[in-house]
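Fold these two proteins, one after the other.
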Amino acid sequence: MSQEERLQEIMKRLKENGYRLTSQRKMLLEVILSNEHSSCKEIYYAAKQIDKRLGIATVYRTVQLLEDMELVRKEMAVQI
């Protein structure tokens, strides 16, 4: 499955579960899909280069939501 297909599938599942597809949430998904990161802070620093307004709490909440929905798993790295 390509990165774009994975992104579309995750966004579809979020929408089906009643979650909004904000521009920041989509951007965070793209960052997570494009690289493996070892922590939410690494995701934050990568995403912050794209959107200077992004807060670290947004990253933690988004990663927790994705984990709760079993779309990511936190091990040594956050993976989709």
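Now the second one:
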Amino acid sequence: MITEEIKKVIKNSSNSRKCEMIIIEVAELLKQANIQMTDAQWLSLVSHLSGMVYRSTHQKPIDAIDKELFSEVSTDSIKLAEKICNLFDDLHEDEKYLLSIHFESARLQN
């Protein structure tokens, strides 16, 4: 799971320690949900999580999004994303929709 590219993303994160802790928790949640990701999917997810760490730490919310764009994403993927978003402080509520795409994609691939 942890490739050299992922290590580089973590190292370059605004808070590498927090980023690494979040990734460990996310890996456990994915295991519990029986979601397996490819290395490329992990890299994309870790990049997103690193961005979430930055936005949470620096109180930089994402722009509001149209939730209808995510109407075909499963409830399970959105709930998992919400659990992960709850690991952070001060994230915009819509962050879960963007994050859910990572899990939905992995579910569809399995």
